[in-house]
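Problem 12. The chain below contains 189 residues. Write out its predicted structure in token notation.
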Amino acid sequence: MVDTRAAVEAFDDRVEGWVDRVRGRPGLDRLFYSLSAVGDHGMIWLGFGLARSLRTADPIRSSLRFAALLGAESLLVNGLVKSLFDRTRPVHEGVRPLHLRQPLTSSFPSGHASSAFMSAVLLAEGSDGAAAYYTLASLVATSRCYVRIHHASDVVAGAAIGLGLGHLARRFDAAGWRNTIRGPRQGEA
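Solution.
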């Protein structure tokens, strides 16, 4: 029988070892600390949602719908799911090379990863920039390990939750977000 906790800790330790090999390089520090900061409160995703909404027939409705979906994700993950777990965050010894907001909530799951991947799912639909959205989501999520705010398993779980919530939102809000982005189909009112 597999000891799940031991397997998760071994995975986290292995990823931490890989990240330790590149952590502390000035260019990577700037990149990953910046990505982590712009991911706070989903700000980067709200910005992309607003920019995409401006190309729609009803930009106000579209941007409000996207913000509401992202807000619901945040309430679910950061309010409910995190309250079910009491996982401590990775220990960071010493001074951080750049300023970083230190969250007070449980480390599991990563809210940055969840909001990043839910947003990528929503923004990528019908977009030529789908790969860019998923790449940026991956970088924001990875930044949380780099800056030692999350364990790798927190990020993987957050990404999985975000992907699932994004696909659920697309399915159950098909007439909302999708139509405000693309406009009604031919023959639809």
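Discussion. Residues 59-81 form the longest helix (23 residues). Students who got a different answer should revisit the alignment rule from Section 12.3.
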